[in-house]
């Protein structure tokens, strides 16, 4: 199975069957794709991150990816300044590609979320 099929299946399972929010779904996919364990505390902290607890603010897809970037590159002993720069570049690319960082613009388009998850894996 290639990584796109893996992500498609994982997103379907976590997001659609188990109602896991986008931030935690993104963290799970990236953790498994990069073979980089994420602690339960991090997953717990991400519970309310789906658009700020459903407020439909910053998209959980962004939040989960930014959390993963921080964890992954901190473990690689990268400087905070460099990690912040990577997060900025990632957010800018996401906004350029999808038109917004706000979850409101993706609401109601489940298929779009799957493609956004696929995009996240290809950006890192």
SSE arrangement:
Layout: H1 3-17, H2 22-33, H3 40-45, H4 51-54, H5 60-75, H6 80-98, H7 110-123
Helix pairs in contact: 1-2, 1-7, 2-5, 2-7, 5-6
Q: Describe it for me?
A:
- By secondary structure, the protein is mostly helical.
- Helix content is 69%, strand content 0%.
- Helix 2 packs parallel to helix 5 and helix 2 runs parallel beside helix 7.
Oligomer: single chain
Spell out the helices and strands N to C.
HHHHHHH
Low-confidence stretches: none
User: What Rg, in angstroms, do the CA atoms define?
Assistant: 13 Å
Distance between the termini: 20 Å
Strand content: under 5%
- Overall number of strands: 0
User: Describe the biggest sheet?
Assistant: none
